[in-house]
Amino acid sequence: MARPFISTQLRVEDYWRGVVLFGRNVATYKFALARALLELKPGEGQLVTLQELAAPFASHLCDHLKLADKQGTFQKSRFLDACRKANRGEITEAKLIEETVRLGFNNVIEAFHIVGNGEIDRRFFTDERKAAGAIRIAGSFSDLLNGNQVSNLPSEAEARWRLVETAWELGVTPALLAVSHDPSTETLFAVDSGLRRRSISGAREALSGYQKGHCFYCSEGFSLIEGEPPEVDHFFPHSLKGYWPAEIIDAVWNLVLACKGCNRGTGGKFDRVPKLWFLEKLSTRNEFLIASHHPLRETLINQTGTSEVERRDFLNGRYNDARSRLIHDWEPQERGESLL
What we know:
Elements: H1 12-22, H2 29-40, E1 47-49, H3 50-67, H4 78-87, H5 93-104, H6 108-111, E2 114-115, E3 118-119, E4 125-128, H7 129-132, E5 134-137, H8 139-146, H9 153-169, E6 180-182, E7 187-191, E8 197-202, H10 203-208, E9 231-234, H11 246-249, E10 255-258, H12 260-264, E11 273-274, H13 276-291, H14 297-304, H15 308-326, E12 329-330
Parallel strand pairs: 11-12
Antiparallel strand pairs: 1-5, 2-3, 4-5, 6-7, 7-8, 9-10
């Protein structure tokens, strides 16, 4: 029986990642609000005024406008124009805060908890703008801050933001962004119409949220910024480059995050092929991303097939070829609580 990649026992981190990583986006304001909340770290029941939110919210948008001027699918935005003026030194920080309070939160507060066609059933704040000009922090956000995944969340949000804005800047929808992996720098990149490489984000940051911050193999949790970071592993080992084209080995579909122990520790994977049940897990991970509005969707389809049947045949063919060449298969000696 296939092991599901996404747990049906949703944790608070799953709801947050659903909002930040899988929601539809017509602007990048949701990412800015997520980053602002994680930066402020308000407690349960606390009223956070729009005035307090405005500084980090606008600051993150100003920083991203320097990377990609298009931060939404709309033609004009008075709020983004104010951020651009602030970047050029044409308005003061106080004026930017004033404009952010007046214009910046008009839609993002209502849209924050929308994923797919409806609102999630666990809120991180409630809207009290009419009564208090603020939002009130819910217990779920305090649970998030106290969880062991909180250190990964800013980097994950940043990586998703870069994927979305890069697609818009290149003039394609996020679902059509063609993404490649550079193994020498462990980064993801796209190529623009002038054949220039555009760096998007680190591969770790882009993949972490979709593994729920846990090793693909042993399910032990990891941190992107503390202790030993996870390693970007080629599910089908890098040693197959002598037999397979580099663009297949280094493709996004073949990348997972693994702890150092699983990747190259004592009893680690090294140049062995994971046990067959891990292939089902990889397939399910890729299908989940393809079915979502994730910016890597089109890349995965182009790399592995236009239908699920084609993609499963592709993976199965690669698996059998890899086993015939490398002979040995592998699984971790110990496994943590599986969330995948």
